[in-house]
Design brief:
By secondary structure, the protein is an alpha/beta fold. It has 14 helices and 13 strands. The protein has a six-stranded mixed β-sheet with strand order 2-1-3-12-4-13, with helices on both faces. Strand 1, helix 2 and strand 2 form a beta-alpha-beta unit. The termini are far apart.
Length: 320
């Protein structure tokens, strides 16, 4: 009996130690919009500071698309991650995620912009030009989970005109912001989606190349990118992460690190409520598609629109 009790106690102690060890290590998901080595060198000082200031072991987890990070967070391979707003919705809905912080840009503005861009030498000067010549053009669309690369331009540029990109252009190639920007600069695609963050980074890194990019369309303001953690992180770990994130960027060295990472000045506290406008945008896009779907019966269309409207009404009642 004593041996059984000792074995049980030993097993319990091992489990407690394993739990404590888990609480002391987190993986931080980072979307790699450029070459992974280049992104890693920019984020390493931030990750190192996070380790030192929190006492946690922090591992950077790089992925070339948002889905890779969402799935990693879903299966608890990533505990904290940087997302765009659209991909953050997926993380919250499918990966036990919760928004806890938001980027602050260098000017203190609460958002950024999606663009449709082309090369300076292009004869295209407007969206009208783009649509008139679409069947002769190649289009660099964004990551399917990207807010500024897919959702926002998809709705404002195409859905509101009753169009889809695949029906407009000769070729559509989905890619990251970094890949699309490089493709435009090298004249490998005629037009592409991008955003103000990416072009600001290019201007800082190579002003001459930034001058080669022409903006055909600018979106309404998009909420700044959120940071999302898993809800089931231990509260003590959450406090360490939150205190570090919200306190970072106060001295010149840290400011330089943040500027190089993502052209940001720091972070502020946030919640899932920042995703409400993006959820509304997704539903408005869905509603417009259902309204124009001629394959649906009147009853099916009415049912689908009623369900979407109910979701929109529920979102409208949520605190902003």
């Amino acid at each position: 009996m004593k041996r059984t009790i000792r074995r049980a106690a030993t097993g319990l102690a091992a489990l407690l130690l394993a739990g404590a060890a888990f609480a002391q290590e987190i993986n931080f998901g980072i979307i790699s919009t450029d070459k992974s080595a280049a992104i890693k060198s920019l984020w390493d000082p931030f990750i190192d500071d996070m380790q030192k200031q929190t006492g946690l072991k922090v591992n950077a987890f790089f992925s070339t698309d948002y889905t890779g990070i969402i799935e990693a967070q879903r299966f608890n391979k990533v505990q904290v991650a940087w997302y765009g707003n659209k991909s953050a919705i997926e993380a919250v809905d499918r990966a036990n995620g919760e928004v806890f912080a938001q980027f602050i840009d260098l000017h203190g503005t609460p958002g950024y912009y999606s663009y449709v861009i082309t090369h300076k030498d292009s004869p295209l000067n407007s969206l009208d030009d783009m649509f008139k010549n679409g069947k002769n053009l190649s289009f660099g669309s964004g990551d399917p989970q990207s807010t500024s690369g897919t959702l926002v331009p998809g709705y404002y540029v195409f859905t509101q005109r009753g169009l889809e990109a695949k029906d407009v252009f000769k070729v559509v190639r989905p890619a990251s912001h970094g890949v699309n920007l490089l493709a435009v600069l090298n004249k490998q695609v005629d037009v592409a989606t991008n955003n103000s963050e990416e072009l600001d980074k290019l201007k800082l890194k190579d002003p001459a190349k930034r001058e080669l990019v022409k903006i055909l369309w600018t979106s309404p303001l998009i909420p700044r990118d959120p940071l999302v953690w898993r809800k089931d992180l231990p509260e003590a770990t959450k406090k360490k992460v939150r205190d570090f994130i919200l306190g970072y960027g106060k001295d010149p060295r840290e400011k330089d690190i943040l500027k190089g990472m993502q052209q940001i000045a720091g972070f502020r506290a946030s919640t899932d409520a920042q995703l409400v406008p993006i959820r509304q945008l997704e539903l408005a896009k869905d509603r417009q598609k259902v309204s124009g779907d001629t394959t649906l019966s009147a009853a099916d269309k009415a049912a689908k629109l009623k369900a979407i409207d109910a979701k929109l009404d529920a979102l409208a009642k949520q605190p902003k």
